[in-house]
Structures
1.
Amino acid sequence: MKLVPKSPNGGSRKAEPLLSGGVPGFKKPVSRSRTIRIDFRNVAIAPESLMDKFVIRGGNPLVGSVRISGAKNAALPAMAAAILTDEPVILENIPDVRDIHTERNLLVSMGADVELGYGRASHRTTISCNNLVNPEAAYELVKTMRASTLVLGPLLARMGRARVSQPGGCAIGARPIDLHIKGLERLGATIKQEHGYIEASAERLHGGHIIFDKITVTGTEDLMMAATLAQGETIMENCAREPEVTDLAALLTKMGAKIEGAGTHTIRIHGVKKLHGARHRIIPDRIEAGTFVIAAVLTGGDLQLTNCDPSHLGSLIQKLEECGVSIKAGTDSMRVTNGHQLVAADISTEEFPGFPTDMQAQYMTLATQSQGTSIITENIFENRFMHAHELVRMGANIRVEGSRAIVRGKTPLSSAAVQCSDLRASASLVIAALVADGETIIDRVYHVDRGYERIEEKLKGVGAQIRRIGEILPKRAAAPSVVA
Ligand code: UD1
């Protein structure tokens, strides 16, 4: 079963590489064998979608059940891992969000064959990298999604060469990738940085001892992938212990990699000559789950989350219980109810298993509705309080002092026109709008679309009054076109 790309006006067109500009020494893509299988009806990056807004009328409690999607941050490295083998990698529970579409486009631009499932299998993606021709991640893609740098290690390990745009800063901070580069150099790569690109090469990577100066999630993932095909043993210390790292190690192990210690600070990898295809189910998105939990708490709702993993949400659950929330956690579901006044509690973002920086913005909205003063300290990113200013415009009492935000509650929130600055900041505004008095208009919701699958449909399904305006995103079709 093959999918045909559709042109923006709906007609079928011949598959083409999405990007041009090959690397010297690499063959140009050959159109006959490059059966690029992307269904453009599912690619939600039409420029018009940048105009989308949410209109939310607050006041309704969220009641019912929400199914949590697969974790974007686990799916992105898993897709990059497919580069490490010439056999198909089948990934289940891939969320239908914009960052995933960007990564698909990136893989396709390199010559990968990406097939999307449909109908009941709409969250399955099969990636075959048996014909990689262009080991490059161009600026146009990297600038919209920093996680594109995750292809650096796998490309270098499999093809001996990679050219990846430097990501630059972003809304939440400088976000350098120096630790990825230093680590790859320790595995024997030669790396040049010019014209805004990182150009890396290595005959074959060799094992090495890497001690990360700082804990980095995608850095740990990038280096772990690179080391799977290196000659000899790699020991990585001060590694990230996030569930997404452990999930990637599980996939790589299924592909034939020899990895010990994922989920701890020290990971050992015995390099192998070749990896093979595998089938893997991506873990549930703990940040999407946490976002719905806070939305349910603030609206005084009664919400059941299914297909989630409460064991990944320990620090959030503990903090919410401190605030007075009642949460019943099963193995793959959670029930949240709240009818009481919340009490303030401080948080400080930390690497896993600490309080996740990706839940800080949503927690700030919760703090505006808690009785007392909450001090929120952001330790991971230097500029991650953009949402505070928008929340103040809705009536919150927040003072930002460097890496601390002091939130005094409870203050009623009232509707306003606000705009999203980054993915998680957007989530905090959506939650604020759900409890605000009146109709809030949230602009730049393309940030939400990067990481939340059909959030307005899920919210509507449990009673929220939310609609998207300016929407011209194509709906997922019942079944894709088929090429013989
Ligand atoms: C990942 C997550 C992101 C989350 C973040 C922290 C993905 C796709 N994204 O981002 O949602 O907010 O972890 O949990 O998984 N740093 C350096 N040099 C480097 C790399 C990182 O100084 O080479 C710094 C960063 O600027 C930051 C800290 O290390 O201050 C942690 O960043 P990192 O864990 O790398 O974040 P990401 O992996 O980009």
Note: The pocket of uridine-diphosphate-N-acetylglucosamine is lined by residues 73, 76, 146-147, 173-180, 214, 216-219, 244, 357-358, 380-381 (CB under 6 Å).
2.
Amino acid sequence: MDLVDPFGRTIRDLRISVTDRCNFRCTYCMPVEGMQWLPRSEVLSFEEIHRLAGIFVERYGVDGIRLTGGEPTVRAHLTVLVSKLSQLRVPASSASPFAGGKPNLALTTNGATFRLIAHELRDAGLDRVNISLDTLQADRFIEMTRRDELFRVLDGIEAAKEAGFSPVKINAVVQRGVNDEEVVDLARFGRDRGGEVRFIEVMPLDAEGGWNRQQVLSQDEIVATIDAVFPLEQMPARGAAPADRFRYCDGGGVIGVIPSVTRPFCADCDRVRLTADGQFRTCLFETREFDLRGLLRAGATDDEVAAEIERAVGTKWAGHQIGQVNFIRPKRSMSQIGG
Ligand code: SAM
């Protein structure tokens, strides 16, 4: 049975945050210090994640799972979780390209320690990886992440390629007056290294509430800046994927842009989210969460958990309201929700 929201969108993609902790402190995501970490007892165990993921995949035909955080690689034994999720099966009766097989498993990471586990994650069944990289300049990297780890992130990208991930996607959040002058350099990096750079408009999910619209470098600006140096053409519509994709006219590869602020793609959204503490969310910007961990720990049956999931999906809204007067920031910031 499909999980369909009130606007007729079928849920296919589940983002699971495996931890709220992170080894970076990116300015647009976390404060320099003072984060209140979840107590370990509140974080879902691998068994709990596997059980919930099983309901989404095997009951509702969700065929894509992305592990995120916080920084997912700081969670010990992440490979064990990937192996467990690899054993799930999308129903053979589903219309999904993954019908009868395992769901497509992806990871979003800052890449700093990825070399240590790239091969074992691949062997465990991880299909895709996105590595975040906002700047190629060492000083700016320290300013933006508050860590001196650029060389390790670059090495993590190489390790991902060596382990067989293809293409490795590079997530770059661009902010006016911070790293916007590097848009072309980042595009060139992707062309030279065979990676697909995905430029992300900065969203109001920073921990300190400092976001403002002037910081947002829009999709139109990003594309025009790159197009002036490396001509681009837009690729066919993206379906439910968040990125608009453009290819270089000279065959130099592809870029993506995630225009959450200037061109929200809510009408095609097929995503739902599970936070590290087992709260179910139907949108990154939702203010309401549904407590699946509480149900699991109270001994609920799969049918009871599924009924709560259906109730929650029944509240999925048509779209978020960033930039409009009625927009309410969610209480939790990006690292606490899971990006
Ligand atoms: N730690 C991992 C990483 O760095 O990729 C995974 C979690 S992180 C929250 C996931 C993605 O969200 C990263 O690409 C990050 O740059 C992006 N992100 C975080 N805060 C953001 C914001 N305020 N606006 C847009 N993207 C943001």
Note: The longest helix spans residues 46-60.
3.
Amino acid sequence: MTNEFEGAAALAARFPTGFTWGAATSSYQVEGATDADGRGRSIWDSFVNEPGRVVDGSNGDTAIDSYRNIAGDVATVKSLGLNSYRFSLSWPRICPDGDGRINPAGLRYYSDLVDALLAEGITPWVTLYHWDLPQALEDKGGWPVRDTALRFGDFALIAHTALGDRVKHWITVNEPWCAAFLGYASGEHAPGRREPAESIAAAHHLMLGHGLAARAIKSADPEATVSIGINFYPVHAASDAPGDVDAARRVDGVQNRWFTDAALRGTYPEDVVEDFKAITDFDFNRDGDLETINAPIDVLSVNYYSRFTVTGNGGSASASAAPTGAGSAWPANEHIGFVPAGLPVTDMGWEIEPAGLTEMLTRLHAAYPEVALAVTENGAAFPDKLDEGRVRDPERLDYVQQHLSACADALDAGVPLVGYFAWSLADNFEWAWGYTKRFGLVYVDFETGERTVKDSGRWYGDLVRRARSNREAE
Ligand code: FCB
């Protein structure tokens, strides 16, 4: 029988002192209590009520009840030995109409959560936007409309004013690619619109919102660590055929360069601009916007799950779309298809390639040497079963181990990697997949809410304890 903690000591020793060890969640996926205490509606509250949008017909009304269970969530983070927890703020819980009217009860929840974490020595990493736009702003046009970015800048200041005395790590926007292109091009995510040209305006305004938020936080607290979270994928051409090579350039451009170049260089990549010109005249990009977007940030937050192989000959329009009738998430690139490379896959059908994480971290550091990097999401869904009080999830344990080893390889190569957050702390509402996909280190019985740490969570906790005691004792 193999020792389940095999390799943990050696792996732990590869991480530096002061490394951030965490797990991540997001507001709509865990909080529930969507009607409680003056919270406004978000686009996800509306979307889940439209028939056919979520594969199991479920919603986030209860989720895993985090709004009512601060003590339980903090105890879970603590039981894993983590020194950090990444969660997001529900914008409509704090600003029910998306404007300057504040709901004090909403702010109090996050303030209490922050206090409870700090009391246990756990550092909060707060994401300002993880996809739950106030419905009131969607009613006025949503992210394709410029005003939404301005309102987001205001919201960042409201959040920082309330929490900034205690919260020092801020992530502005989580995965603008998903918010723009799954929300407004394919329609797989809320608000479910299929308007390819508008989705490019949405992407721009998400970045403008990022820039405004980053500047608001930095001017209020120059010591704060500010970041943006982007989902990165190594992209391979299916063959040497020119159409496939061009498809790889296009997908890499949108996924790996569009948002990052804007944030860190203040430019959009020329080749992608040319591609997008087929469907938009960019009239939403006003003078000065890219300077605003190019706000100084400290950390680039890397969300990494998988890799892509693409062709220029159509086929599957997405590597991961839910079977909810979504259109293409690739505006101006609808001819591109995603093909399997034959690697092992998770329950999402996402191919597992740990070396791709080292590759992305090394590449990002070479391209943007001025920022530190943190892995702010990494994890895998598998169909877990609770069996006499235990969840045996060797595939997830392997996944986390191999990706941490990939992080250590990046550290060895000189990448300034400051942290790792597993996605997710606990099983939760996985967007269009509802409760059918389990990503947690902790199993949740969705009927009773009961939590059970999975084998992968015990392994990760053991690794973190070893790393922290090795290093913190030095
Ligand atoms: C990421 C999201 C996160 C979760 C994981 C599986 O794209 O940021 O909320 O859904 O995927």
Note: The pocket of beta-D-fucopyranose is lined by residues 26, 29, 174-175, 178, 231, 303, 377, 423, 430-431, 439 (CB under 6 Å).
